[in-house]
Specification:
Shape of chain A: globular
CATH architecture of the largest domain in chain B: 3-Layer(aba) Sandwich
CATH class of the largest domain in chain B: Alpha Beta
CATH architecture of the largest domain in chain A: 3-Layer(aba) Sandwich
CATH superfamily of the largest domain in chain A: Thiamin diphosphate (ThDP)-binding fold, Pyr/PP domains
Number of domains of chain A: 2
Largest sheet of chain A: 5 strands, parallel
Number of helices of chain A: 11
Distance between the termini of chain A: 79 Å
Largest interface: A-B, 45 and 46 residues
Structural class of chain A: alpha/beta
Number of strands of chain A: 7
Oligomer: heterodimer
CATH topology of the largest domain in chain A: Rossmann fold
Number of domains of chain B: 2
Radius of gyration of chain B: 19 Å
Helix content of chain B: 25-40%
Number of strands of chain B: 14
Strand content of chain A: 5-15%
CATH superfamily of the largest domain in chain B: Thiamin diphosphate (ThDP)-binding fold, Pyr/PP domains
Order of helices and strands of chain A: HHEHHHEHEEEEHEHHHH
CATH topology of the largest domain in chain B: Rossmann fold
Largest sheet of chain B: 7 strands, mixed
CATH class of the largest domain in chain A: Alpha Beta
Strand content of chain B: 15-25%
Number of helices of chain B: 12
Structural class of chain B: alpha/beta
Strand order of the largest sheet of chain A: 1-2-3-7-6
Shape of chain B: globular
């Protein structure tokens, strides 16, 4: 008998530009169906969860099922405000890029629920190891918008002193670790930070993010190994927004299994969560946080979402995916869904929503004006002396000589 | 004072670091119960407890990433990479993260970690247990690179590295763990017991980073060396009878440029010695610095003695290793008119 000829499989997304958009292959279970186990449950009792999808908000915006976190209306409104602020900020700064006020910008459109919900679910003293699409974490903690803009402009008031690409923020006082342009490299730092907290018999926990594309990096697997081995009090999140620049999630292994299911081989609980559902994200995060605080160790959470904008201002997503794909995304818009929920429970109104948008638009505009007055990119910058500071705690002779050579 | 070899001196440093500061902890492959493949962490787990000194998975990138996270929290982790040859999986973490964290965060976060790693040849370790990667770390802004040559310095430099607020790559020349190897592999082994730098205080002390040692004063030329090659250079001086000044750099970042320049200006000749391969090695930087700062004082071309530009060859250990004969030949060349 002759052997079959082998064939090489190259994953390909269902739709490319010009193709009809279809998400029929994605199974979206109804909200409220997934069981919520006790936080003391062992990993082997949890192995169905990585293949399910935790959802709380039903199509009418009602909160249903055991994962309903029963949040106060105030909490929900804070979340909505942070998400709206993020979107308005994104839109204004995207325009600022078009106007030449900065060289680069990245939106988090469609993913606003993640940072906002998790920021409010965790404590001020916990530490977030972010990706570049969770600025809503800072918005939920009232980080000064003007400082975000100053950073984006690298102007004289840039808290990072002109050293970082726009949006690669760092805000220690807001529990927001230093971002880097390398993807995936800080997920292990979250584990180390959490191990340090456990070592010190502290009560603080860490949350780390990685994109689904970057789960292919060794960093992810090493972080899961360490998190599992040392039972680190950390929440590890895979933000599965379907796209890594132009590569669909299948290129990172998403055709074969879910990203939450990667947890199983490490003996960690894996939760797969509707990332556009503010309440579901909160509930899953709270569950993982309780586990971590009770010394049950780490949890991997896949946040199933969609990158509604391009990768960055340097990217044109119409070159590789259908133009209206984000509108067809079956999990909807996270802001609209939370708004609908608040309306449904009688804690919000269209008028208040319109007023809030106006207020936040004015707030961002004011912050931009303030930053514009300091200077946009290239019009103002920190002292060039700053270039030579913080390389080491104290500069050595090389840096001192080179600073003098530059004449600063 | 006690007589210690380099392993014992390093062990004493780590023991004191754990005793003095509960924010210091140690982890790495086989460093826990077993005490490390070279015994540097021997009995530290037993003495200080499992959370102070423990085994890590075989994941060098993970070890460094974890240490950086701990450093960002406020601890001072000391990690071991079992051989410097295995440090490369962690290179991204060291270069893109540890070295840059303070800078890119505007000073909000830093990684005060110490990465110990045995390095260098002379042990028939082949290409995976013999390399000298110091130049690739010296090239990275934000990292410090420290290389002791004897037990006294090893202890003091390690304690200074742990106390330092920046990430330090601490390379231990494993060929001199047990004795001052001078490159004469066919002669009887020496032990640290016969060497003055094998006398090590039992208490805490530091040897500052960035301060070279004048191992032997001289007037005919300046020899720059670090790690095992300090002993090789010393042997070459003795064999040749040339009155050379020998500097042990002790750390290459920060570098004691003042001592180097003062010495070369005085002697007018310079020979640079290292085990690492020559092309793009740290000797190239030293040569450039000496040329830039001492050109009008130089009476002959700067010489470099280094490993050949090949991978580290197992069966050709002594053909590759830059022993005293090669150092002496370079010294004689610098004396030619």
């Amino acid at each position: 008998m002759e052997d079959d000829k082998l064939s090489l499989h190259i994953p390909t997304p269902r739709a490319r530009p010009g193709d009809p958009v279809t998400f029929d292959h994605i199974s979206i279970p109804a909200a409220g169906l997934v069981r919520r186990p006790e936080i003391s449950a062992s990993e082997e009792q949890l192995r169905d969860l990585p293949y399910d999808l935790i959802r709380v908000l039903d199509p009418d915006g009602k909160a249903v099922g055991p994962w309903n976190p029963q949040l106060s209306a105030d909490h929900l409104r804070r979340g909505l405000r942070a998400m709206l602020l993020t979107r308005i900020f994104d839109d204004q700064l995207f325009r600022a890029h078009r106007q030449g006020k900065t060289t680069f910008f990245m939106k988090s459109a469609g993913e606003e629920a993640i940072g906002a919900s998790q920021s409010l679910a965790l404590r001020a003293s916990d530490m977030c190891f972010p990706t570049y699409r969770v600025v809503s974490w800072l918005m939920a903690r009232d980080y000064p918008v003007v400082d975000l803009v100053n950073q984006i402009y690298s102007n004289a008031n840039d808290p990072l002193k002109g050293r970082q690409l726009p949006i690669l923020y760092s805000a220690r006082d807001y529990g927001f670790y230093s971002l880097s342009g390398n993807v995936g490299t800080r997920i292990g730092h979250a584990v180390g930070w959490a191990m340090a907290s456990a070592y010190k018999r502290d009560t603080r926990i860490a949350i780390g993010y990685i994109g689904e594309g970057s789960t292919a990096e060794g960093d992810f697997h090493e972080a899961l190994t360490f998190a599992s081995v040392y039972r680190a009090p950390v929440i590890l999140c895979v933000t599965n927004n379907q796209w890594a620049i132009s590569s669909f999630q299948g290129i990172a292994g998403g055709e074969a299994t879910t990203f939450a299911a990667k947890a199983i081989a490490y003996g960690l609980p894996g939760l797969r969560v509707d990332g556009n559902d503010f309440l579901a994200v909160h509930a899953a995060t709270e569950w993982a946080a309780q586990r971590a605080r009770a010394n049950h160790g780490a949890t991997l959470i896949e946040l199933f979402t969609y990158r509604a904008a391009g990768h960055s201002t340097s990217d044109d997503p119409t070159k590789y995916r259908p133009t209206n794909e984000e509108q067809a995304w079956p999990l909807g818009d996270p802001i609209e869904r939370l708004k609908q929920h608040l309306l449904g429970i009688g804690e919000w109104s269209e008028l208040r929503h319109t007023e809030l948008i106006a207020e936040l638009t004015e707030h961002v505009r004011g912050a931009c004006k303030e930053a514009d007055a300091v200077g946009t990119f290239g019009k103002s910058k920190p002292s060039a002396r700053e270039m030579f500071e913080d390389v080491y705690k104290e500069p050595d002779w090389r840096l001192i000589e080179q600073r003098r050579e530059l004449g600063v | 004072m006690a007589s210690m070899n380099m392993v014992q001196a390093l062990n004493s440093a780590l023991d004191l670091a754990l005793q003095r500061d509960e924010d210091t902890l140690i982890f790495g492959q086989d460093v826990g119960y077993f005490g490390g493949v070279f015994r540097v962490t021997d009995k530290l787990q037993e003495k200080h407890g499992v959370t102070r000194c423990f085994d890590a998975p075989i994941a060098e990138g993970g070890i460094i990433a974890t240490a950086i996270g701990m450093g960002a929290y406020g601890l001072r982790p000391v990690v071991e990479i079992q051989f410097a040859d295995y440090i490369l999986p962690a290179f991204d973490q060291l270069v893109s993260e540890a070295a840059r964290l303070r800078y890119r965060s505007g000073g909000q976060f830093s990684a005060p970690i110490t990465v110990r790693s045995p390095y260098g040849g002379g042990i028939f370790g082949g290409q995976t247990h013999s390399q000298s990667p110091e130049a690739i770390f010296a090239h990275i802004s934000g990292l410090k690179t420290v290389i002791p040559s004897n037990p006294y310095d090893a202890k003091g430099l390690l304690l200074a590295s742990i106390a330092d607020d920046d990430p330090v790559i601490f390379l231990e020349p494993k060929r001199v763990y047990n004795g001052p190897f001078d490159g004469y592999h066919d002669r009887a082994l020496k032990t640290w017991a016969e060497h003055p730098m094998g006398e090590v205080p039992e208490e805490y002390y530091t040897v500052p980073l960035g301060k070279a040692a004048i191992v032997r004063p001289g007037s005919a030329m300046t020899l720059l060396a670090y790690g095992t090659m300090v002993h090789v250079a010393a042997a070459a001086i003795e064999e040749s009878g040339i009155d050379a000044e020998l500097l042990d750099l002790r750390s290459i970042v920060p570098l004691d440029i003042d001592t180097i320049v003062a010495s070369v200006k005085r002697t007018g000749r310079c020979v640079i010695v290292h085990e690492a391969s020559r092309y793009g090695g740290f000797g190239a930087e030293l040569s450039a610095l000496v040329q830039e700062r001492c050109f009008h004082y130089l009476r002959s071309p700067i010489e470099r003695v280094a490993g050949w530009d090949t991978p580290y060859p197992y069966a050709f250990e002594w053909d590759y290793f830059p022993g005293p004969a090669r150092v002496e030949a370079a010294m004689r060349r610098t004396l030619e008119p």
